[in-house]
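Hello,

Our lab assistant flagged a job as stuck in the queue for most of the afternoon. It eventually completed. Since we weren't sure the result was trustworthy after the delay, we are filing this so someone can double-check. Below is the sequence as submitted and the structure that was eventually returned. Let us know if re-running is recommended.
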Amino acid sequence: MAARHREPRTLMWYFAYGSNLNARAVAEWCRHHGYRPPQLKGGRPAVLDNYRLCFPIYSEYWGGGIADIVYDPGKYVAGVLFDLSEADLKVLDAKVGRKLEGDREVGVYKLIEVKVAPLGKGEPIRAVTYQGVNIEKYHIPPTQHYMDLVIQGAYAHGLSMMWIAYLQSFSVQQGRKPRPPGYGDSPSKM
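-- returned structure --
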């Protein structure tokens, strides 16, 4: 019997700052959409300098605005570094609506490379994160449910109380809980 050779798992650092901070929210989305949830355990709190957090993208799934980052010298975004496999990142690509046509990013978000500083000791780390492809950056209030999940994720990973207070300062709308695919779709007319 031949020994089974397994390909080594290629890992990369991923910087999460929005609903992907919350492993439960990611797992729920995966359950609704038929994906195996990525391993979002043991993340390291980190800071992305010269960007700021905003909510300029409307999500049908969440029913309100969702997080994005925009280049803004002197500002920062707190988040969490996760060591993910390429397969895990592909699941997150689907979750955030990243799509490629050839080498062109045509989805809701694009993958960008950033340099992130882990909190405490450690050198800055090269990581990937998502940034909206839309140039317009008007504020679309996220739902209270969405912001609660972001705040729970930030708290669970030990982000600062100052950052959590900042997250709580964004205007929100009452909204609704996430809507799984097919919910409320009109029946087909055959």
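-- support follow-up --
The delay was a queue issue, not a problem with the job. The result is valid. The first strand starts at residue 11 and ends at 16. The chain has a mean pLDDT of 86.
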